[in-house]
Every structure is written in structure tokens, then in C-alpha cells.
Specification:
It is built from six helices and seven strands; from the N terminus they run ααββββαβααβαβ. By secondary structure, it is an alpha/beta fold. It starts with 6 loop residues before the first helix and ends with a strand.
Length: 211
């Protein structure tokens, strides 16, 4: 519940709860060893940050055996994650752009919910709460005046038009960022050691023994 760096592996293992193989058991043990070895790692919040809140979504196209894509979103407040999700999309998409659109749509609903909560709490961010996405084509598709996506998947088309309407009305703002600055990257795919360390840093996780 307090370790978003373990969300992706937990999501992957959760798909093998029935009749797990020896390989799945070993993978679970490996995940537990990682958590034990980093048990002193905790979320750090920083009240001096200029950007109070940040929201990011990401997708990994067709990476599951059934060709469904992985998706994730991350909500950060004062530099620390307060809401995140690593999951598998319910339907198969036919392109990276479609997978990213579904991820942003899911994240957009959460962003609207958080904005309403902040308003109820009278928490003024003093900046736009944007969705950060590392897929330039998807960002351009939502921000351009003329739609350019052609899809035969009805559910994707519905999400596409809903998102474009929200973006054009200013209810949701989507901004492109480079992949190496994507804070939700580790919620959609397993990462190598160097990229995982960067992901942990993006999450604001620190070793509490040193504080």
C-alpha cells in the first residue's frame, strides 16, 4: 500500500493466483526479497516544491500474452505519490496510440476526481493539473483541432472523442514529456536496474535510515 515501486510485479503475479507454477512462486519470492531488502524505503513529501501536484499516465502496447496492453497512472502531491495503479487493459488495441488513449482516459477520470476533492478541501494548486504522457502522437492527437485517429474499435473511438472534448474544453490538459522523465514508466513494464533506480527517484522514495 505504500510501495508503488512494487505495483507492476504485484499486478503481474496477480494474474497467476490460480494454479501458479514453480516459476511464479519463485518470482513471488524474488519480489518479497526485494521488499525486505528495501524495507526502510519510504515516501518523502516536500512542501517547498513549486509544482504541488503532478499526474502521469503510461501504456505498454500489447505486452501481455493475450495481447492486451499494460497501463498505469500516478498521482503525486508535494513530490510523493498518493494514488497509483498498474493494471492490464480490458480489451485489445491495434496500436500504441490506441493503448495510450485508453490509459489517458482512465487517468483523466481520476484527475477530475482529484481536482474536485482539492476544490472541496480548498487546496489551491496555483498551477494547471496536467496529464503527462511520453507519446507525442497521442498528445498531438488530443490537442489538435482536427481529429486524425481512424479506428474500427468502437470503445477506443468513444474514449477518443470523450478525451478530445475534455481537452478542447480545457477540462483536461495533456502535455508531452520525454520517456526518461516519465514518472509512471515503472507501472507498465519491468525495468532494468538503472531505469528502476530512476523510477524510484521519480516516485520520491528514499531510504529513511539516512533522514
Amino acid at each position: 500500500m505504500t510501495r508503488p515501486d512494487g505495483s507492476k510485479v504485484a499486478s503481474m503475479l496477480a494474474t497467476h493466483l490460480q494454479k501458479p507454477t514453480k516459476a511464479h512462486i519463485e518470482a513471488a519470492k524474488h519480489a518479497i526479497q526485494y521488499l525486505v531488502g528495501t524495507a526502510r524505503r519510504g515516501i518523502q513529501f516536500d512542501g517547498s516544491m513549486k509544482e504541488i501536484a503532478a499526474f502521469a499516465t503510461d501504456a505498454s502496447y500489447g505486452d501481455n500474452p493475450n495481447r492486451r496492453s499494460s497501463e498505469g497512472y500516478l498521482m503525486k502531491l508535494f513530490g510523493g505519490p498518493i494514488d497509483w495503479r498498474a493494471s492490464r487493459q480490458r480489451t485489445v488495441t491495434t496500436s500504441t496510440t490506441e493503448a495510450e488513449l485508453l490509459a489517458i482516459s482512465e487517468g483523466g477520470k481520476q484527475l477530475i476526481w482529484w481536482r474536485r476533492l482539492f476544490n472541496e478541501l480548498k487546496l489551491h494548486l496555483h498551477h494547471d493539473l496536467e496529464i503527462l504522457c511520453d507519446n507525442a502522437q497521442t498528445v498531438n492527437l488530443l490537442n489538435n483541432n482536427e481529429p486524425t485517429l481512424t479506428t474500427k474499435l468502437r470503445h477506443v473511438d468513444i474514449h477518443h472523442h470523450w478525451l478530445r472534448e475534455k481537452c478542447q474544453n480545457g477540462d483536461i490538459k495533456v502535455r508531452w514529456i520525454p520517456t526518461d522523465q516519465q514518472p509512471a514508466d515503472g507501472l507498465t513494464k519491468p525495468l532494468g536496474a538503472a531505469k528502476h533506480a530512476a523510477f524510484v527517484q521519480h516516485l520520491g522514495l528514499i531510504d529513511v535510515k539516512t533522514t
